[in-house]
Amino acid sequence: MITAIGHTALQVPNLDASVAWATTVMGLREVAREGKTSYLTHGAAHHSLIFIEADESALDHVSLQARDDEALSELTDRLVKHGVKTIDHQREPAVKQSIRFEGPDGHVFEVYTGLAQDQPRHTGRGVQPRKFGHPMLKSERPRETQQFIEQVLGFRLSDDVGDGTLLFLRCNADHHGIGITKGGEGLHHYAWEVENIGQLGLLGDVLEKNDGRFLWGPGRHGAGGNLFTYHLDPAGCVVEYYADLIKIYDEVNYRPGRWEMSDYRFANLWGPGIPGHEFFDAGAKLPAARVAAKK
User: Within a 13 Å sphere around the CA of 143, how many CA atoms are in the beta-carbon half?
Assistant: First the structure.
């Protein structure tokens, strides 16, 4: 049903600062700006990241690519079956069809077909990724969010850390396209894939020249097997750059990995383990208006 992770849309307090960082450090290109909304891309897709100017940082929505129009119709039927209402919205530029709906913990998901892949090739400044990888969602009810993503969107579990404390789910061969971490709300980080560890080292140099630094990494996750680095963007959200993610091609015989929280290797096979509150407390919450409406 879902074939790829499309993009993340973030509400940011300073649109110009966020766009400058994305186009200088992260190697993206601004395709269009419509009012207070900026559409950016890493490559051929019309957009793989959206910034929306707002009073404070927040997760607006996560966008996923459906296989085709038939899959989008099937998803609509599943939403009805599970009692999930769709959300009225203005379709994004260069998208053929889309629907939006809310998950059990307040995250808004968009599923679309027909995003234009007509952007010119460009060599970005900074470190240009080769694709958008995944969002890591924060959730007070990770098992419920997991079940929703599996039953409604058709994802499969790849790894489970600490009996539901960290969950990694996939929609294609990539080890994970959505992650879920227990605690808080909204988004912890959004992730981009690069070619190799050399690009991660280059990112460190680019960050230093732009008054940034790594929050964590370089290292290699046990869950997912990928090389990683994390840094903060100007809106206070965590950005992961990664390479060498495990691919899962044998759906019949693959069994999800199970990790104890006491086994630091799930976080970093190289050591050290997960950093402190600066890392965990970062991210983009749900929009205040949406949280207030749920109360």
Answer: 3
Which amino acid, residue 235?
A
**SS3 readout for 111-139:** EEECCCCCCCCCCCCCCCCCEEEEEEEEE
Contact 167, 179 (CB under 8 A): yes
Query: What is the value of pTM for the model shown?
Result: 0.96
What is the DSSP code (8-state) at residue 85?
A: P
As a whole number of angstroms, the distance between CA 241 and CA 218 comes to: 10
Same CATH fold assignment for domains 2-113 and 131-280: yes
The predicted model gives 146-166 an average pLDDT of: 98
Distance of alpha carbon 172 from alpha carbon 30, whole angstroms: 28
pLDDT tens column, 207-231: 999 999 999 999 999 999 999 999 9
pLDDT band at 290 (very low <50, low <70, confident <90, very high): low
Provide the angle, in degrees to the nearest 10, between the axes of the packed helices 142-153 and 69-81.
Answer: 130
CATH number for the region 2-113 comes to 3.10.180.10
Asked if pLDDT for residue 135 goes beyond 90, the answer is yes
Dihedral (CA of 137, 82, 150, 242) sign: negative
Each domain of the chain, given as residue ranges in start order, spans: 2-113, 131-280
Give CATH for domain 131-280. Answer: 3.10.180.10
